[in-house]
Amino acid sequence: MLNVSTPTFEHHREPLGIGEPAPRLSWTVTADTPGWRQQAYEIELGDGTTTGRVDSAESVLVPWPGAPLGSRERRGARVRVHGADGSVSDWSPWSYVEAGLLDPADWQAAAAAPPLELLGVPDGPALLLRRDFSARAAVERARLYVTAHGLYEIELNGRVVGDDVLAPGWSSYAHRLRYRTHDVPELLREGGNTLGATLADGWYRGRIGFLGGKTDLYGDRTALIAQLEITYADGSTDVVTTDGDGWRCAPGPVTATSLYDGEKHDARLLPSGWSEPGFDDSSWLPADALPHDAARLVAPTGPPVRRTGTLSPVAVLTGPDGETILDFGQNIAGRLRIRVQGPAGHTITLRHAEVLENGALAIRPLRQAAALDTYTLRGDAEPEEWEPRFTTHGFRYAQIDGWPGELDPASDVVAVVCHTDMRPIGDFECSDPLLNRLHDNVRWSMRGNYVDLPTDCPQRDERLGWTGDIQVFAPAAAFLYDCAGPLTSWLADLAAEQAEVGTVPHYVPWVPLAFDVSPTAAWGDAAVLVPWVLYQRTGDLGLLRTQYASMTAWVDQVTSLTGADHLWDEGFQFGDWLDPAAPPDNPGKARTDHALVATAYHAWTARVVADTAALLGHSGDATSYAELASEVRAAFRREFVTPSGRLACDTQTAYALALCLDLLDGPGQRERAGRRLVELVAADDHRIGTGFVGTPLICDALCSVGAYDTAYQLLTQRNCPSWLYPVTMGATTIWERWDSMLPDGTVNPGEMTSFNHYALGAVADFLHRTVAGLAPDEPGYRRLRIAPRPGGGLTHASARLDTPYGPAAVSWNTDGTTLTVTATVPPGTSALVDLPQAEPREVGAGTHEFTTRL
Q1: Which entry of 44, 98, 462, 497 is annotated as an active-site residue?
Q2: 433 phi and psi, to 5 degrees?
Q3: Is residue 444 scored above 80 in pLDDT?
Q4: 462 classed as catalytic
Q5: Reported pTM
């Protein structure tokens, strides 16, 4: 059997309205033949273009073989492959791609803005907009291109279009505003039709950030930008746009809505049938048609935020003052959906929190985010169903106040999980239930912290795209989910903001809050390391090409700051943020010298840029950046390393950086540094001693010097601070602090205390690569590394991953003396198998079993 999958385009799951005129194609193969390899491929496009036989083993992000797509153009593609063994597959099924509006001139739509007299203060009411229009019979095709200054939900003839949440998401609006393309012919009627939209402030006009935040950051007027293009069977077209003709506005049932504070909805204020034909809008006010810069409108590179699941309460609790509190058993990003019946005008209040303290909602960690929704009933004879539309909360617990009658938790309330609808691609399991729960917590934290962009937390008055968090977490993220598309978009924002403000901001999009933008190690280094991780995990060299100017600009800027001695020892640094020894009120007071951290990162990113330059064919850059990396590395040793291999800064993080980033000179220094790291970990009773910077590296550093037992003792430690301490305390996500909750059940007194923060969950990458033993040995998993290292009393472990070439898996079990490993290698790839007490060997595609002594 030899089959080829339906080809995919770029990193899209839904290739409708894409922004790439020449999208690269990828496909996977299933083959019965062990060791099968592709020798050639053929691509046929729907316009008759064919490549003929192309002798190539490439099947991932293969160049588009035909004429570029024009705006709105739809084209099919299918693939046939030839194996090195002479086999030939059938043609794959056809796959179809359609371009969006590729030229700013394609946009006819203005921005329909509610009149000023309807606008409230920021985070005020969500307003209704509508327009009637006519359509003829025999609609062959209809596309709705839509975005907004603010958040929108759009309806066509009374039905919500699409299933997006918080559309169009948050990008660097001053540079890039994403629009979505919807296929809507089934929603159109012959004769009268109506487009209706609800428009809220969201990130555009509403409050963003901590210390009171900022409002009106991108503008003081919300607006809808929509273009409905209808094509009929006879080839004629109609275009309905947001312009100055026919769009009318009024208040709606959402009387206030805020990303942080929640939503107030009065169901009595909803005009019946407002988004359907025949509604009388004569009392509504006309919208203003405002200009906008169509050059900023871009198609998305990944999926939108969606509702991805629901959770029912696992317990109904009574608070200390008699409050009704629902426990959903899992900390999430999302909101509640209620089903309720009661008298008109009665109001229900929904409060949210991540944890309980003394039996009540712990709301102090929310800071200035109210996280409170209210619903005022319409008073229908039938139960009313409601869910907020323009807010999300980070919560596990919800307090329900004012419920009319008896609350039935089994049917009346569910928690709706909301996040970017990324495809899950990887998993991990082992014999230790606590490690399994830790891994689940990492996954849930990624879900909670990818509400359109990679954030720091989903609950308090922040939720910003901190660069340092995703920099350390990117390897784990790229294993858990297909996040290349979303992160490509975020990196485009990073590059735009970097060029605008002159350096890589601490978070992207950049919002000026408590401090000025300044270059900081580990955070700004995301400009280099996140694209590099994505290349290693997807094989997407095009992403490195796109980000190259951003990558080099960052390293060049740091080089200009360090001067002739190459030491980055001036300016503000976050350092090893949230070192467990840092006091609650000073999370940056780490034991590791900030200059050591910054200089180590400078050496790392200079080397990565050198490697990137070589891959892209920039030989001069490759040489100069390699020389720079060598010089910074030498400067690090001169300043921070003794001849024997001791570090001037005697901390777990310092040694982890030196060992993992190859900053030491020769095996003698590595041996001494490794021995000292083991001593430090043992002196701390095998408890963690690292913050954001050291945590992703510490286990790898120990293993790099053969100290696997120490790494496992650190990994499986249950006392605070450790990865498993929060698990023993009932955590269902990764905490911001090692001790966000103290052993007595009280919340850490620090102002900055989140219970959903994925950065310290970066250890999941170690679980995948070393505990289970599944890692890339070449970019994109073209060659796998199968190298499990059992320990910690584990009797079995496994990892599974949908690689760009197809499913790969490793599982192992042991009786303490013998290790048995089963590995699945996808067609078209190979694997280096490196097991304890055995010589490394290379195997081809297929399922293999190995046994070795421990």
Answers
A1: 462
A2: -60, -30
A3: yes
A4: yes
A5: 0.97
